[in-house]
Amino acid sequence: MRNPRPGEWLSEKLSQRYVGDYKPFVFVDGEGVRCSLYLSGCLFACEGCFNEATWSFRYGQEYSQELEDQILTDLGQEYVQGLTLLGGEPFLNTGVCLGLIDRVRRKFGSSKDVWSWTGYTFEEPAAREPGQARHAPRNRCSGRRPVRTRET
Ligand code: SF4
After folding, report:
1. Pairing between strand 149-150 and 139-142?
2. 45 lines ligand 1 (CB under 6 A)
3. What distance in angstroms lies between residue 49's CA and the mean position of ligand 1's atoms?
4. Across the 152 residues of the chain, what is the mean pLDDT of every consecutive 10-residue run?
5. 87 lines ligand 1 (CB under 6 A)
6. Cα(44) to centroid of ligand 1, in Å?
7. CA distance 50 to 38
8. pTM for the complete prediction?
């Protein structure tokens, strides 16, 4: 397992804007019915990682405007509670995630929640990229495996 120094891993240098998968209307990535976007690329190298293929920043396919539009359409279903960002490592793909969250907030206000599953601890991303803290997902399940905590 790797532990980065502050500023060592930067999304803008690492992200290739690839996603491994997108799953609408799932029940397993947070509370309620959710739309889940799996970002590609992770450097933590946790022992027992559930999907090592997602460590590659070129795993899957390139994120597209069409996919983003589809996510917004799916989130518009009344029974969908929110969006989940996971991976791979969503905080090493902030260019994708922050743009998507911005559109979600503009379209739905606070009526849809945003969760993230990340290898970073709660303090790390804000310390690394303080300008982005205000865009951070409200609920974040964080920490390298096997330790996970949840902000409530
Ligand atoms: S943070 Fe998640 S995706 Fe990355 S190595 Fe650890 S378990 Fe795997």
Report:
1. antiparallel
2. yes
3. 5
4. 90 97 96 97 92 96 98 98 95 96 97 93 63 53 51 35
5. yes
6. 6
7. 13
8. 0.87
